[in-house]
Amino acid sequence: MGSMTKRIKVFTVFRWLAALLLLPINVLIIIPAILFDLEITDFNYWTIWLSIAIGLPGLVLAISCVRLFATLGGGTPAPWDPIGNLIIIGPYRYVRNPMLSGVIIMLFSEALFFRSLPFLFYAILFTVINMVYFPSLKNQD
Q: Which of 2, 24, 111, 121 is the most exposed place for a label (fewest CB within 10 A)?
């Protein structure tokens, strides 16, 4: 029985790593690093601090959603491994997809952090695509 429990734990960790690496980490870090020439030219510039002030609530929102998924949902944020239980507490009481909202807030704060117009267009494109994609999923049900 102990060996089975260990396998289940390893599988759960793998599921979460796959979901986090393929979704938010990919969108927030990997794709921008590949597409854009990002560098911080002046760390004392006011937009850096403003972007951090804007991005931190987005990060807290996303982390709180991941935590709720892990503790109450029985699944991951990934569409291929959805939660088994409906979550209606915390930010899910007010917003249908608060994790996505947190990611979008962080994307816009990153665009400001790097003062990158192409990154801003990427954040806008990501937002628009998701504004079209998720309502179309609802209409399929």
A: 2
